[in-house]
What we know:
Strands 1-7-6-2-3 form a 5-stranded parallel β-sheet, sandwiched between helices. Helix content is 36%, strand content 14%. It starts with a strand and ends with a helix. Strand 2 (38-43), helix 2 and strand 3 (64-69) form a beta-alpha-beta unit. The chain is α/β, with parallel strands linked by helices. It has 12 helices and 12 strands. Helix 2 packs across helix 12 and helix 7 crosses helix 8. The protein is globular. The chain folds into 2 domains: 3-146 and 317-332, Aspartate/ornithine carbamoyltransferase (Rossmann fold, 3-Layer(aba) Sandwich), CATH 3.40.50.1370; 150-314, Aspartate/ornithine carbamoyltransferase (Rossmann fold). The model has no long low-confidence stretch (mean pLDDT 96). Bound molecules: N-acetyl-L-norvaline and phosphoric acid mono(formamide)ester. The site of phosphoric acid mono(formamide)ester has 8 residues, from helix 2.
Amino acid sequence: MKLFTSVHDVPNIKQLIADALALKASPYAQQHLGKNKTLGLLFMNPSLRTRLSTQKAALNLGMNVMVMNLDKEGWALETADGVIMNGGKAEHIREAAAVMGQYCDILGLRSFPKLENREEDYSEDFFNKFIKYCGVPVVSLESATRHPLQSFADLVTIQETFKKISPSGGDLEGARARIPKVVLAWAPHIRSLPQAVPNSFAEWMCRAQEESMLDFTIAQPTGYELSEDFTPGAKISFDLDEALAGADYVYVKNWSSYKEYGKILCTDSNWMLTNEKLKLSHDAKVMHCLPVRRDLELSSEVLDGPNSLVIHEAGNRLWAAQAVLKTMLEELR
Length: 333
Ligand code: AN0
Ligand code: CP
């Protein structure tokens, strides 16, 4: 694996999940892999979880790590070709990326969309140019359209926690186990947020559904349909209560409209998950990538309640990142 920018870069998701869970059981067993190897983590936007979990993952593998807030600490970057650089931008991405590739064996990059021009954001121009010019393997720390380290950790969390139970609820020995029903549920927010997390979650869940690992539904208000490129085979509902019926996992997330690009079309608080709504589900576990706005996006009674998986899920970001870096390091040798 020379790139980790989407689920399409992963030949075998079940193997990668097994790797993550093996690393969780023995975090330091692969320290030899990262000896004298350097990871560079570059952020154009804020981060808590991605920054710390990926850094720790690299340290667990024996790597050296350098972290840079590129937006604030680096030179302003030009990405367009064929321009005379007589404006405010001091350095071209061609040189900047190539130079960082000289210092690092693997690079990670976070770059959010501007949410102004859909074609521009969805072209992933900045990310693709960075990959092209840096010359080393690249891990996405969230691009304009995807957040694969998050979605992979989410799938690990579902696989790890789902108790194989019978359709009637009792334990089954030797009988057919059922698969979990996973619902991606849109939630309200006051800011215009990217589609990266839901796009990526949908893409990973659709792949897992293809492999008969789970059943996947997306619930959203009208106008919030994601690009169909990310949702092949997903069931689509415009009614949260209906979607929650029988759900084993509810993945709560706000996103802005893809169709009316970047717009906030709904602020209806009936889309916020509460304990009352959770009763409609199959005692579902509740997930969120974090950061979450309490009682706007997700009720504090659910966040603080027994069904919340959010801290466990954030903890698994470490093992997901470590599995990805391990796979890349094995191929560097
Ligand atoms: C970002 C987003 O929705 O893409 C990052 C999530 C990991 N969230 C916010 O900006 C609140
Ligand atoms: N979930 C997530 O990626 O969090 P950060 O933005 O804090 O890295």
